[in-house]
Design brief:
This protein has four helices and 13 strands. The protein has 319 residues and is α+β, with helices and mostly antiparallel strands. The protein has two domains: 75 residues; 206 residues, Jelly Rolls (Sandwich). InterPro entries: ConA-like_dom_sf.
Length: 319
């Protein structure tokens, strides 16, 4: 007798309504999150595409500005280089503003003519003075060593910018002295003449500086500013003259120690196209004279430096 297993029917378990609702809510939330993420990604993509378009337009506009700025920069550099080239050409080919007429030392009886014609090979052209707000101005600077006053009753020429038409009695140029520096006869005094722009040119400005040291190097600066003529001796103002007329400038040669010159030495005759101030003049004095023989020197004493050992020049060469 076969035994059949008995089948037991399981009762149906009812799912609570709350759990169903929770599952549906969770599914809806996940779907909402997916939808939000998709929308955000799509929005970002659209913004990125719009940004790329705007960036390309910005870059294109910047490229135009950069090209324009580069062209302006090229023009500025070209103008600067052109101006620099013109200045260099003027500096090397034109006359110097503050040239040396005599560089180094020459004997006081060694006469020279410094030509102003640029066509001359050995010329040293001098520009007209600077016209500042106060008027024209210039300065002449020179070192002198006066050995002896001599016995001649005539003035002794140190230098003048003018002509060689000297008066037979005074040995002073009759026509042009712009300026003229002379050693007074038998007297340790300097005689300075500056032509002025009067109608007759017969009333030049004249200034005498007395008590010039002998057998010592002395620096002389003739400074003109408008109608005021100052003379500095070793950096100290020693004479002033208020001229009645504006100084007269000329294009004549510079004559140095001509007509016999003077008994002594001359060093570093220089022209400045402006009025040196007292500090600049004292700077020249502090530097001292140039005792090296000038390339223009033709005398054996200045060329070799063989001076009498009792003179200050001899001791200066041993320093």
């Amino acid at each position: 007798m076969n035994m059949q297993p008995q089948t037991t029917n399981m009762p149906n378990i009812a799912v609570p309504e709350a759990i169903k609702n929770a599952g549906q809510s969770l599914g809806n939330s996940i779907n909402s999150i997916k939808t939000g993420v998709n929308e955000s990604v799509n929005g970002f993509s659209q913004q990125a595409q719009a940004g790329i378009g705007a960036s390309s337009q910005f870059l294109q506009s910047n490229t135009i500005v950069a090209k324009f700025a580069f062209i302006i920069l090229i023009i500025i550099v070209f103008v600067f280089l052109l101006a620099l080239g013109i200045m260099l050409i003027q500096y090397f080919s034109g006359p110097k503003t503050n040239p040396y007429l005599i560089y180094g030392m020459i004997d006081g009886t060694d006469g020279h003519i410094i030509h102003q014609d640029p066509n001359q090979v050995d010329s040293v052209p001098i520009n007209r003075s600077n016209n500042q707000s106060t008027g024209l101005e210039f300065t002449w600077s020179v070192w002198l060593y006066i050995n002896d006053l001599g016995t001649d009753a005539k003035n002794q020429l140190i230098f003048n910018k003018g002509d060689l038409n000297y008066n037979e009695k005074t040995n002073i140029s009759n026509i042009n002295n712009g300026p003229g520096l002379y050693l007074s006869p038998q007297k340790n005094s300097l005689h300075i003449i500056m032509d002025t722009n009067d109608n007759t040119n017969t009333d030049p400005a004249i200034l005498d500086i007395d008590n010039i040291p002998l057998r010592n190097w002395v620096h002389i600066a003739i400074r003109v500013e408008n109608t005021i003529l100052d003379v500095y001796v070793n950096g100290v103002i020693s004479g002033r003259l208020a001229m009645s007329k504006v100084p007269k400038q000329n294009y004549n040669d510079v004559n140095v120690c001509k007509g016999g010159g003077f008994m002594g030495k001359l060093s570093n005759l220089r022209y400045y196209g402006y009025a040196l101030n007292v500090f600049e003049i004292n700077g020249i004095v502090a530097y001292g004279p140039n005792l090296n023989p000038s390339g223009l020197s033709t005398t054996s004493g200045a060329a070799t430096g063989n001076y009498a050992y009792l003179s200050n020049t001899w001791y200066s060469t041993k320093l």
